[in-house]
Amino acid sequence: MNPFSPRNLLSTEGMSRHDIELLFGRARLHARGLRAGTPLRSLAGRVVANLFFENSTRTRLSFERAAKALGADVLNFNAATSSVSKGESLVDTVRNVEALGANIIVLRHPASGAAHLVSGKVRCSVVNAGDGTHAHPSQALLDAYTLHERWGTLEGKTVAIVGDVLHSRVARSNLYCLTTLGARVVVAGPPTLVPVGLEGLGAKVLPSIDAALEEADAVMMLRVQLERQKESMFPTPAEYARAFGLTLGRARGLKPDAVVMHPGPVNRGVELAPEVADGPANVILEQVANGVAVRMAILESCG
Amino acid sequence: MSKPIIIRGGRVIDPRNRVDGVRDVRLEDGKVAAVSERPLPLEGAEEVQGGGLWVTPGFIDLHVHLREPGEEGKETILSGTRAAVAGGFTAVAAMPNTRPVNDSALVTRLVRQRAAEANLARVYPVGAISKGLNGEEMAELGALRDAGCVAVTDDGRPVMSASLMRRVLVYTAPLGLPVMVHEEDLTLSAGGALTEGPRATRLGLLPIPRSAEVVMVARDLVLLEEVGGRLHVAHLSCAASVALVREAKRRGLRVTAEAAPHHFTLTDEAVEGWNTHAKMNPPLRHPEDVAAVREGLADGTIDAIATDHAPHGVMDKQVPYAEAANGVIGLETALPLTLELVRAGVLGPVRAVELLTAGPAATFGLPGGHLAPGAPADVTLVDPGAEWTVEAARFQSKSRNTPYEGRKVVGRVVRTVVGGRTVWPLEERR
């Protein structure tokens, strides 16, 4: 199945370069419209349902902003106060939301494959806003868009993805998106958090963060999931910061015009030193701003 | 008593008695009366034409979840034994993880009574190792045996406490009860959904390292060697586990093992698209594991093919993968999947039949599993060349959770006889 059918966006795996560049072209248009205060209201009269079964602030707000800017009606669904807590199944919930008139379901769910499951059970469009540790395609597309707008092309560039790759849907989705656009992807992180088989997905796994940073034109620092600390995947946040964090010292060793990215929210002092999080190389807020335009392009292509 | 039956001119494959040839078989008074190379006189018997068919001892499945009592929506002893005889199984061992758990003589007697009412396949209850499968306190193992349990297990759960496992082996040794183990170190598998590997990484399913199974097999073999008893390893699925059991047998330890058809016919590729019908525990493994399980079946390391028939409803499976219940149904597909190994040259027909009959019978010390005169008249007739397509909707089981839907298979059970009485095809269909 094409993960980026005209209806759905489930994954960046299998998306063609042409699909991605087309989307970037629309995103550029939307970005201009947003800046000028004249967004294209191409989803006027359509209904976008944000179904978030997992806590999220920025992704939900970003999708909501994007849908409203396109003129769509937005339904927001909070799993904690819904009948999910009364035992309703995911499939029943999405069918009900579709029956309410939703044209696009934006789904965030803690289980991998949830968006794939839902897309097989409803006729409306499904946009995966993050499923378990599988995929977060809109984040990957906005990350790649951010780099694309800076560089004009990703061809020949090296992007380092650093941190907890095992639990990261952002890392997986970025890996496909970046390599499809011609970039080289290197990965480094605590060995306990680098899953087996990444080479088969197109990444080069490097033994240390320093080896990865040396080559990088862009660095994506993944969020350390401190809530997983009880699993003891690494000794302490302090040791993580020393061994795998982007410290000020390491940031100074980066290529002069290398950029620092982060999907947010940032653990300051763990994966990113505060000075780096606020430093000139970071494009984190640019990512957030671009997110709205890219998500407008995504919703529009599904609507 | 039903009318005597003569099965005429079939290829009798009776591995325990080293028979593989065209014979007439006479069943009378619930027993095998004669097996002869010369035509047997009819003498008032029902004549069954066996030409072109295999005539084998009734299949025995050491690992079946009949779900009764407690989860009758998924399966009952009646529907489960219907599925059994449809698949050629004349006897099944019923796992104790019911509600309530079969950790008492009372539940054991209930299972036996329901099986007698169903009056299809023989049902051998397997009792729990620990009370309520809590993994802490021993169930009344002596009472369970006296009530008719043929083995004990906490199946579905491992015995995480090495100390309890050791005591159970010590305690059951004089009872002669096999201790059947689901080998999984929960601290290693914790939170995982699929065997560690590139596919788990791609699908975003947290990995279960194979060591979760292997370290527990190793632990239990060490305990077995130290204290004796009878260890039976359920659903062996990893290459390293097969190697450990092979080595332990070579050294003379009293260990047996079974493998499930899904572990010798499928790899984790079947999970693609988060297919919850391919979710079971142990999870599907990699090609090298499948090859090792096949080798273990061929060389005698593995004693029995057991289905781990685990019925689940739609609501247990139509959910995201990580949340889906573990288990697949297996009774009605075991024969053709076993025959795939014959066609692939992994097993000869005699070994294949042995793994479904004499092997499991010897493992739990059950009657049957062979066709010498005097043996129970439990017989399965197989058309080894019949082609069909798996359609779960046509199954006798109440549940439909099979990863083989749509698979073209070869080999079909045409008649199942239990105690001299034809139970498949079902009476209403004949």
Question: What would you say this structure looks like, in words?
Answer:
The complex is a heterodimer of chains A (303) and B (430). Chain A has 303 residues and is of the alpha/beta class. Chain A folds into 2 domains: 17-136 and 290-302, Aspartate/ornithine carbamoyltransferase (Rossmann fold), CATH 3.40.50; 137-287, Aspartate/ornithine carbamoyltransferase (Rossmann fold). Chain A contains 11 helices and 9 strands. The mean pLDDT of chain A is 93. Chain B is of the alpha/beta class and 430 residues long. Chain B is built from 14 helices and 18 strands. In chain B, strands 1, 2, 3, 4, 5, 16, 17 and 18 form an 8-stranded mixed β-sheet that branches. In chain B, strands 9-10-13-14-15 form a 5-stranded parallel β-sheet. Chain B is globular and about 65 Å long. At the A-B interface, helix 4 of A face helix 6 of B.
Number of helices of chain A: 11
Number of strands of chain B: 18
Radius of gyration of chain B: 21 Å
Distance from N terminus to C terminus of chain A (CA atoms, Å) equals 19 Å
Compact description:
The complex is a heterodimer of chains A (about 300) and B (about 425). Chain A has helices at about 15-35, 60-70, 90-100, 115-120, 135-150, 170-180, 210-215, 235-245, 250, 275, 285-300, and strands spanning about 45-50, 75-80, 105-110, 125-130, 160, 185-190, 205, 220, 260.
Pick out its properties.
heterodimer; A: 303 residues; Rossmann fold; five-stranded parallel beta sheet; four-stranded parallel beta sheet; 39% helix; B: 430 residues; alpha/beta; Urease, subunit C, domain 1; TIM Barrel; 2 domains; eight-stranded mixed beta sheet; 14 helices; 22% strand; globular
Topology overview:
The complex is a heterodimer of chains A (303) and B (430).
Chain A: H1 17-36, E1 47-52, H2 58-69, E2 73-78, H3 90-99, E3 104-109, H4 114-119, E4 125-131, H5 137-151, E5 158-162, H6 169-180, E6 184-188, E7 203-205, H7 209-215, E8 218-221, H8 237-244, H9 248-252, E9 259-261, H10 274-277, H11 284-302
Parallel strand pairs in A: 1-2, 1-3, 3-4, 5-6, 5-8, 6-7, 8-9
Chain B: E1 5-14, E2 19-28, E3 31-36, E4 46-49, E5 54-57, E6 59-64, H1 77-86, E7 89-94, H2 105-118, E8 122-125, H3 141-147, E9 152-153, H4 162-172, E10 179-181, H5 186-189, E11 194-195, H6 198-203, E12 207-208, H7 211-227, E13 231-233, H8 239-250, E14 255-259, H9 261-265, H10 287-299, E15 304-305, H11 314-317, H12 334-343, H13 349-356, H14 358-364, E16 379-389, E17 408-418, E18 421-424
Parallel strand pairs in B: 1-4, 1-5, 6-7, 7-8, 9-10, 10-13, 11-12, 13-14, 14-15
Antiparallel strand pairs in B: 1-2, 2-3, 5-16, 16-17, 17-18
